[in-house]
Amino acid sequence: DAGVIQSPRHEVTEMGQEVTLRCKPISGHNSLFWYRQTMMRGLELLIYFNNNVPIDDSGMPEDRFSAKMPNASFSTLKIQPSEPRDSAVYFCASSVGQLDNQPQHFGDGTRLSIL
Amino acid sequence: AQKITQTQPGMFVQEKEAVTLDCTYDTSDPSYGLFWYKQPSSGEMIFLIYQGSYDQQNATEGRYSLNFQKARKSANLVISASQLGDSAMYFCAMWVRAAGNKLTFGGGTRVLVKP
């Protein structure tokens, strides 16, 4: 079975540019999560969706970040304009419904470098 | 608010020996669950094991077992018969029912297995 698919795997861009990260969750999973991982702050939840609806975006750093989930099989995380402090690994994860004992399955992450 | 703590930033273990990774948590919600994830140097997050707050027995999954001590609010991961491939970062994460689908991650423990 295909896991969570993220693209691109690596992104290097200059500050001020728009960055779009993409995620395809596991088929049948109806919860989707975006995380950011840095050395300083560890793993932080940015936003999560249930049934394509954003439930909690309290972790989104600021208005430069936005996330969408237009359908059950696709989500984007957009940063506009990007800044060097946005450099991190961004993970997408998905799970089946309400968490309980259902683990979140992570994609391989997107390593983002803003110069 | 829930909190999860991993006090060991790093540790060495001899190949074929067992290792215990500490995880303590704090929540007032009676319904919660604890997950352990492995992150090898390649960066992906791999689900290892889950323990629910109402589970009567400690979780086991192959060489992984969870030493769940509810009164002490600890959920330590035990890896038996360590292998070189166990070298990785290990993260403890907690879900509480009142917070919905959100996972809160600890800071991680880096394990290096010595031949």
User: What percentage of residues of chain A falls in helices of 4 or more residues?
Assistant: under 10%
How many helices of chain A? The count is: 0
What's the multimeric state? Answer: heterodimer
Number of strands of chain B: 12
CA radius of gyration of chain B is 14 Å
| Average predicted local confidence, pLDDT of chain B | 94
The chain-level mean pLDDT of chain A equals 93
* Weakly predicted, low-confidence segments of chain B: none
**Principal-axes shape call of chain A:** globular
Structural class of chain B: mainly beta
Strand content of chain B: over 45%
Order of helices and strands of chain B: EEEEEEEEEEEE
Note the gap between the termini of chain B.
41 Å
Largest sheet of chain A: 7 strands, mixed
Distance linking N and C termini of chain A: 36 Å
Q: What structural category characterises the helix and strand content of chain A?
A: mainly beta
Largest interface: A-B, 25 and 21 residues
Q: Describe the global form of chain B.
A: globular
Structure summarized in a few sentences:
The complex is a heterodimer of chains A (115) and B (115). With 115 residues, chain A is mostly beta strands.
